[in-house]
Amino acid sequence: MRLENITWVQAGEYFKQHDMVIIAIGSLECHGTHLALGTDTIVPNRILELIEEKSDVLIAPTVPYAVCDLLSDYPGTVTLGMDVFYQMMSKICENL
Fold it and tell me: CA 60, 68, 58: angle at the middle one, nearest 5?
């Protein structure tokens, strides 16, 4: 069950009975010249599809940005920095 596909009422009902949400974290970064920038998001999204087929756990949207400081010189790489990433993930968890 995907959080982005349910209503706030359904989310409320889910949280009355469950205390778990899966939040996958990917990144948008270079992977050499042979793989897509979104590889670290594409792979977890496929894993989440398989989990969704076998479980009723709530799945939050995949976070597509992370800390990629070492790769920031490569075009297309997006890095948030540790402080921003920590704040963002903390807020997401607090709100869920």
Answer: 10
Which residues lie closer than 8 Å to 10 by C-beta, 6 or more apart? none
Evaluate whether 34 touches 26 at the Cβ level (below 8 Å).
no
- CATH number of 3-95, picked from 3.40.50.1820, 3.30.470.10, 3.40.50.10310, 2.30.30.40: 3.40.50.10310
Contacts of 31 (CB under 8 A, 6+ apart): 37, 39, 40
CA 2/CA 95 separation, integer angstroms = 16
Q: Which residues sit opposite 63 in a β-bridge? A: 25
Amino acid letter, residue 45 = N
Quote the pTM value.
Answer: 0.86
Interval 59-81 mean pLDDT: 95
Q: What is the average pLDDT score of the chain?
A: 96
